[in-house]
Design a protein that fits this description.
Layout (H helix, E strand, L loop, with lengths): L1 E6 L3 H5 L3 H8 L3 E5 L10 H4 L5 E5 L10 E5 L5 E4 L4 H4 L4 E5 L4 E6 L8 H21 L4 E6 L23 H12 L2 E3 H5 L8 E2 L11 E2 L2 E6 L6 E6 L11 E5 L1
Parallel strand pairs: 1-2, 7-8
Antiparallel strand pairs: 1-14, 2-4, 3-4, 5-6, 6-7, 8-12, 9-12, 10-11, 13-14
Helix pairs in contact: 5-6
Length: 253
C-alpha cells in the first residue's frame, strides 16, 4: 500500500504544472495534500473528481487562499472527520482523519511558526494534536500521521543547522516536541529505515536553493510502533517538481 503526502503550496498552482498527469501515473492507494490554498468550489472538476478515488477536502473557514488539506483515497474510509475538536485550530483547515479497517490516517498541515505570534499557536497545536493522537491510540487505534510538520527534527534534516538554530522550524523548543512525539511511541518511518541518509523535502525559492540542494526535511510519515513490522519502504521523491516541497512516500503491507 503506497501512501504519498505532499505539500503542494497551492493545488490550483500545482495543477498547472502537471499535477494530475503525475498523480494518475503514480496511482498511489492514498494521496494526502497539504497547503492546498483552495476551497472545493474554487477547484476544477478534474481535481475534485479523479477516477478511482474518493476525494475529501478541509479548507480554512474564513480565509481564502490559505492553509487547507485534501485526501484522495482508492478505498473508501470507514469514516472521515476534520480537525481535533478545537475550533481555534479546526477553522484553519489543517487536518483530515480517515479511518480504515486496520489504521487511522491523519493528514495534517502543521502551523508555521515564523509569522508574528504564530510560534505559540504552533506549539499549542502540537500539544493538542499529540493529546488527540494519544487518546485515539488508547482507544486501540494504530496511527499513520503524515504531512508538513514545519520542523526539521535533527541537524541531519537541514543543510545549515548551525545557522538556523534561532529560526522557527529548527528551534530547540520545536525539536523537543518532536522528541516528545517519539517518546510517546510514534516512529519517523523514513529515519527508522535510513538513519544516516541525507535528503530534504523543502527548499526555499530563493538563491537557487533546490538546485544547490540546500533544503530542509519538513515532511514526514510517523507511525505508531505497532505498525513497524508492516513498513516496506519510505521515500522522499525529490525528482517531483511543482512545489517548494516534494512528495514523501510510505509503503506498508
Amino acid at each position: 500500500m503506497r501512501l504519498i503526502s505532499w505539500n503542494v503550496n497551492g493545488l490550483r498552482a500545482v495543477a498547472k504544472k502537471g499535477f494530475l498527469d503525475w498523480f494518475l501515473s503514480e496511482q498511489p492507494e492514498v494521496l494526502c495534500l497539504q497547503e492546498t490554498k483552495a476551497r472545493p468550489e474554487q477547484l476544477d472538476d478534474g481535481l475534485k473528481e479523479v477516477p478511482g478515488y474518493h476525494v475529501y477536502f478541509d479548507s480554512h473557514k474564513f480565509k481564502k487562499g490559505y492553509s487547507g488539506v485534501a485526501l484522495y483515497t482508492k478505498a473508501e474510509p470507514i469514516s472521515v472527520t476534520y480537525g481535533i475538536g478545537i475550533d481555534l485550530y479546526d477553522t484553519e483547515g489543517r487536518m483530515i482523519i480517515a479511518e480504515y479497517p486496520d489504521f487511522l490516517l491523519l493528514n495534517v498541515y502543521f502551523p508555521n511558526g515564523k509569522m508574528d505570534g504564530r510560534l505559540e499557536y504552533k506549539l499549542n497545536f502540537y500539544e493538542e494534536f499529540l493529546a488527540y493522537c494519544d487518546e485515539r491510540k488508547a482507544d486501540g487505534k494504530s496511527l499513520v500521521i503524515c504531512g508538513d510538520f514545519n520542523t526539521a527534527h535533527h541537524p541531519i534534516d537541514l543543510k545549515n543547522p548551525k545557522a538556523n538554530e534561532d529560526v522557527s522550524g529548527f528551534l530547540p523548543i520545536e525539536r523537543a516536541w518532536m522528541d516528545k512525539l517519539e517518546a510517546h511511541g510514534y516512529v519517523d518511518a523514513y529515519r527508522h529505515l535510513y538513519p544516516e541518509r541525507v535528503q530534504y523535502s523543502w527548499w526555499s525559492y530563493m538563491r537557487r536553493a533546490r538546485e544547490r540542494n540546500s533544503g530542509w526535511r519538513l515532511d514526514y510519515h510517523y507511525i505508531s510502533e505497532d505498525l513497524l513490522p508492516r513498513i516496506e519502504d519510505a521515500k522522499i521523491l525529490t525528482d517531483v517538481m511543482g512545489s517548494d516541497h516534494c512528495p514523501v512516500e510510505l509503503d506498508i503491507t
